Amino acid sequence: MDLPPNSQTGTALENGQAELVVSLPRRFRGTLMRSVFREERLFLVLSVFIGIFSGLAVVCFRFAIDWCRIYLLGSGASLSPARLLLAPSLTGLVIAVLVIHVFPLARGSGVNQTKAALYIFNGYIPLRTAIGKFITAALAIGSGHSLGPEDPSLQIGASLASALGRRMRLSRDRMRLIAPVGAAAGLAAAFNAPISAVLFVIEEVIGRWTAGILGSVVLSAISSVVVTRWFLGSESLFRIPAVQLERPSELIAYAILGVVGGFASVAFSSAITRLRPRFRALPNWTQYFQPAVAGLLIGIIAVLGAPQVMGAGYEYIDEAMHGQFTWQMLALLAGLKIVATTLSFVSGTPGGMFAPTLFIGAMLGAAVGGAEHVVLPHLSGSVGTYALVGMGVLFAGFLRAPMTSVFMVLEVSGNYSIIVPVIVANTFAYVISRALQPTAIFDVLTRQDGLDLPSMEEQREENILRVEDAMQPPAGPILDAEQPLENVLRQIEESPSEIFLVRLQPSGWSHISKQEIRTKVNEGKGAHTLRSVLPMRQLPVLHPDHLLDMALRYANQWPLVPVVSRADLRKLEGVISESDILNRYRAFDEEGGD
Amino acid sequence: MTVREKLQGLGTYPTREPVILALLCALAVGAFLAVGGLSRAYHAQQQALADRWFTRGTVDLKDAHFDRAVADFRAALRYSRDSYDYQLNLAQALIGLKRTDEAYAYLINLWEREPENGLVNLELAHIAAQKDQTEQALRYYHNAIYAIWPGDQEVQRRKTRLELIEFLLDINAKPQAQSELIALAASLGDDPSLHQRVGDLFLHAQDYEHALAEYRLALKSDHHDSAALAGAGLAAFGLGRYSLAQRYLQVAVVANPEDERSADLLKTTELVLRMDPYQRQISADQRNRIVIEAFAAAGERLKSCAATITSSGAASLETLEQSLADNWAKMKPKINERDLRRDPDLAERAMDLVFEIERESKIACGAPTGTDLALLLISKLHEGN
Questions:
Q1: A48 vs B contacts (CB less than 8 Å)
Q2: What gap in Å lies between CA A89 and CA A96, rounded to an integer?
């Protein structure tokens, strides 16, 4: 892994350690600041290029998948049984050889690999991974394995971005951020939905909202979508049916969909998380045959009458949205897709889970909608509306990306009247899924891979400690900098504290110890004001809402840090010291951290 | 590494930046061109595949191989998802397979895209008609009539209106059918076959006046068109203009001797004309002979009908028939040429009884034939006189 020589500098600045800069000679200080701003600008420009290159790569990836499909399965709608059986199984053999011997990092969906790049490998993803992912995923999806192109696109984008960042010799912090920027571009291009891609990357990969990264992620996502639309047109993945919600009471019907979706999500994720370790525990030689066997079983499902489960299945989502299947068939397809995707994924075949999740959600939604229409014919929502909501439901329940799930449906449908049903259904699915499967699928997969990446879901929900949780009222009197030292000494003589805050005029804070004052008075400077003898040290100030982590940075340099009101910087709310912070953290651990 | 050393590394940025951006731009342009080439090849292949499957589908649809056509059009749609024609043809193939729900899903989607498309509206009307959704069917038929059609719009609109009329006649909405027919008749032009078809529909709607007018228009260009002659005869018959009906039917039977319906109708017409005692051109003796013959026929009708009623056991009808039989038997001795000549009102009373017998017998024993039918028609002809 090659790291640029200047990697540490950026970290120091972003960590707010301004004193590092302050301590440098003036000529170096100017150079450093200019360079940092230049890098920031360059990063933004680079984000656009990452978007363009990712978009181009994803366009090629789409072409490759379609070509594989045409040449492996045939160009017609009704496929021959021989091809249905042979194409996924023989291609599975080729994929296994490629994954084991040539592209070992191409295995899996790609989301966790991108997260690992961010948190473990300083943004490093080998370009070879992108090439491997491109080839193996195109072969897998094109030959009918039940996987989707979105997650591989995400990884291809991240890998391209990483390669570009390395070539540009970006700082370590920028390098860490560049993979998510590429990931957003890749996902946006694959989905043709930039907002959802940005949200997913923020929600699931980065896990935090910061203005610096948001700008780059948005730029890359938009530029990649522009490129994709340039070559593939601006049509959404599905033809969107008319959305209708005449009576609020119909939300109950969507809540039922949410409940069903929640259980389906748990079934799907349980199947994957339980079978994957068992497949991996099988003897090594079986790794060569696992994708082939999975492909054969999927082929059998197809020959038996459900070829819809093969590949990403977008055309069938489209058909489900337009009432092309009976509700019984839709329910069957949802179940079979869970089986097929589980087989493909646990066998180590490279490919994504987004498209299968959408497929299962759409089928399940349309099935529930269809069944509800049989029982309650007056429901105004079309089966297509339920399919659309169902996609969001599975996204929330299975992928555990609640915010992305809502915006994804909004962005794909382009219809804001669907927002209430989506929120209602997604909430039910998410809550049920959380209750029955506490750890999200991506986190389980990460842990199965032996990595300990931060769980975005846990991060979102963990309690944050702030300065107000640890600050204390000042132990001694607040000293005025204009007072004579003799008066000050009298004032503090009785106080048990050793360190005192000094209020500076017209503004600012400093501190002084009892010992320092005694020394000055003994030196005969009792008539001097406190300001005149005070060493040149101005304390930083904190506010009650600042994070405790941030306070720790200051507290280890200063014995006491004043906490002041944001409304009136002269109003002291309390003080905080390193021991206060550590005590609070200790107490927090004892409370269980929640 | 010290901060100063790191700063020296940073110092290379200002000089590198423009070069890097220029290189990236060049690379992006190159990649764009390369992907553009690939894209052209990809889209050309997709279009070729779409065309191939669509052509196959069209042939299969024409040959009524609907299942194959469905698969073909689905394949075509895979490569050109939004094609209006492909979706419309797929819907038609699905209709052919009686998978109307699936077809409806495609059609309604197409309708949302182009609500003014004639063919889509017509297909939706067919589906609604199949599902007995009369109101929707009428809406789509009317949409189709005023919609945009490829090719000769007038012809398509006329065909659609004809379908609508047939639908209305099927659901027995005759007044609506008549008004549509009148609107259609106004825009028919000179095509005799069309006039004849519209005449048939007017006949179906029991609008004999307009039917006769349409047949006459049809006969203008071909005086010997047997179907038009038969239709005109039927229309004239329906109007009670038996002499005119006789003329048309005679020619129709000559033109098409196999037309049994017209031959039967001609016989009835001739009977009506022969048995009508109120004709102006006949002498008093002739009229009296007709009255005697009609009276005898009514007596026979009464007898045969009474036998039927007795076997069925309907008491109220039996009483009514008995009272008519009594009246008939009471009048019977007077119905001879001498008494009829002596009492001019007797013929009138006798015919009134004959007409009553025929009307009641029709109710009690079903539709009459031959002379009885002729007498019933004559009674209708002179009703209210």
A1: none
A2: 11
pTM (two decimals): 0.71
Helix (H, G, I), strand (E, B) or coil at A480: strand
User: Nearest C-alpha of chain A: how many angstroms from B5?
Assistant: 8
Q: Using alpha carbons, list the distances in angstroms from residue B363 to A81, A94, B173, B357, B367.
A: 68, 87, 26, 10, 8
User: For residue A225, what is the domain's CATH number?
Assistant: 1.10.3080.10
Asked whether the beta carbons of B106 and B90 are under 8 A apart, the reply is yes
Chain B: residue whose CA lies nearest to A51: B28
- Contact call for residues A133 and A352 (beta carbons, < 8 A): no
Nearest to B202 by CA among B193, B194, B213, B211: B211
| Residues A494, A451 share a domain | no
The domain containing residue A537 runs over which residues? 467-591
Q: In angstroms, rounded to a whole number, what is the distance separating the alpha carbons of residues A36 and A19? A: 16
Q: Is residue A461 part of a domain?
A: no
**In a structure prediction context, what are the per-residue pLDDT tens digits for chain B, which is 385 residues long?**
444 445 444 444 445 677 878 888 999 999 999 999 999 999 999 999 999 999 999 999 999 999 999 999 999 998 988 888 999 999 999 988 888 888 888 888 888 888 989 989 999 999 998 888 889 899 999 999 888 888 888 888 888 989 999 999 988 888 888 888 888 887 777 778 888 888 888 888 888 888 888 888 888 877 788 888 888 998 988 888 888 888 888 888 888 888 888 888 888 888 888 888 887 788 888 888 888 888 888 888 888 887 776 665 565 666 767 777 888 888 888 888 788 788 878 888 888 888 888 888 888 788 888 888 888 888 887 775 5
Report strand pairing: A499-503 vs A509-513.
antiparallel
* Contact partners, residue B353, CB within 8 Å, separation at least 6: B295, B298, B324, B327, B328, B331
A503, β-bridge pairs: A480, A509
Q: How many whole angstroms separate alpha carbon A101 and alpha carbon A95?
A: 10
Cis peptide before A506 (omega within 30 of 0): yes
Q: A138 with A160, same domain?
A: yes
Query: Which of A410, A432, A455 is a domain's end point?
Result: A455
Give the three-state DSSP class for B19.
Answer: helix
Handedness of CA A291, A293, A295, A297 (dihedral sign): negative
Q: How far apart are CA A121 and CA A112, in angstroms?
A: 12
The CA distance from A559 to A438, in Å, is: 42
CATH code 2.30.30.140 for B190-275: no
Q: Does B42 touch chain A (CB under 8 A)?
A: yes
Are A502 and A362 in the same domain? no
Q: Do A239 and B10 touch (CB under 8 A)?
A: no
Asked, for residue A242, whether it belongs to a domain, the answer is: no
Alpha-carbon gap, residue A564 to A507, rounded angstroms: 12
For B206: left if phi > 0, alpha if psi spans -120 to 50, otherwise beta; the answer is: left
Cα(A416)–Cα(B262) distance, integer angstroms: 67
Asked whether residue A240 is domain-assigned, the answer is no
ipTM over 0.90: no
Backbone angles phi, psi at A331, to 5 degrees: -65, -40
Residue in A32, A231, A235 nearest the CB of B39 = A231
- Asked whether residue A88 is domain-assigned, the answer is yes
Q: What is the CATH number of the domain that holds A551?
A: 3.10.580.10
B279: alpha, beta or left? (left if phi > 0; alpha if psi -120 to 50): beta
Same domain, A519 and A415: no
Question: What's the CA gap between A575 and A561, in Å, rounded?
Answer: 6
Q: Is A235 on the interface with B (CB under 8 A)?
A: yes
Cβ contact, residue pair B104, A241, below 8 Å:
no
Residues 6+ apart with CB under 8 A from B101: A323
Q: Which one of A5, A49, A242 has the shortest CB-CB distance to B24?
A: A49
